[in-house]
Write a structure and sequence with these properties.
This protein has about 190 residues and is α/β, with parallel strands linked by helices. It has seven helices and seven strands. Helix 2 packs parallel to helix 3. The structure holds S-adenosylmethionine. S-adenosylmethionine (SAM) binds next to helix 3, strand 2 and helix 5.
């Protein structure tokens, strides 16, 4: 399977993976940053992981996924791409796993549960090295972060409010320099300054 076929596979099964322009941005950002240690929240079937590892031969990836079925597919895909020795998949809830992580990462890609970015943020700041990069997908959350209509289901409004709080925090934080890209579902690219 090539990367286009993997994308098709995911789309046909309604497995949520990155949109094309966000994927391009992620690839280019990894290529520019040349990270050694990447942390990802939200593996799904390994699509974004394969994109990141393809962008930098020296990078190793620790990635977290709550769905065992998705993690199994991701493992098979990393194997097929010859990347298994560069990947470690943590299977479980990122809310349990992230607070237990140690060590330093120079690149973090946050693409897990959309209502939890604000919860993970302080932990990720501790794990990220100075000069490291934090990329977050879906920060505009279907357009709801900036315009919350009255008729949206409650779950979406809660997620949108949580995402709004996260977006406000990261853009205001003096510890980060952040750029918001209005592509895909909204992507931030932040550099940790201190
Ligand atoms: C948008 S998808 C990730 C897509 C993937 N990064 C890509 O572009 O190929 C979000 C993933 O996060 C996982 N997820 C949701 N809640 C989670 C949690 N609490 N802990 C870990 N993973 C979670 C979902 O099962 C799903 O596979």
């Amino acid at each position: 399977m090539n990367i286009e076929q993997l994308k098709q596979y995911a789309r046909e099964r309604y497995i949520p993976i990155m949109l094309d322009d966000a994927k391009e941005l992620l690839y280019e950002t990894v290529q520019k940053c040349k990270p050694r240690r990447i942390l990802e929240i939200g593996t799904a079937i390994g699509y974004s992981g394969i994109i990141m590892l393809s962008a930098c031969d020296e990078a190793k990836l620790n990635t977290i996924e709550v769905s065992e079925a998705s993690a199994r597919l991701a493992k098979a895909n990393f194997e097929e791409w010859g990347m298994s020795d560069r990947v470690n998949i943590f299977i479980g809830d990122a809310r349990d796993i992230v607070p237990q992580l140690t060590g330093e990462y120079d690149f973090v890609f946050m693409d897990g549960p959309k209502g939890q970015y604000e919860t993970f943020f302080p932990y990720l700041t501790e794990l990220l090295s100075v000069g490291g990069t934090l990329v977050c997908d879906n920060v505009l959350y279907k357009g709801l972060v900036e315009h919350v209509p009255d008729n949206k289901r409650h779950k979406h409004i809660t997620v949108a409010r949580n995402m709004r709080a996260f977006l406000d925090d990261i853009t205001a934080s003096p510890r980060y320099s952040t750029k918001l890209y209005r592509i895909g579902d909204g992507v931030t690219v932040s550099t940790k300054l201190y």
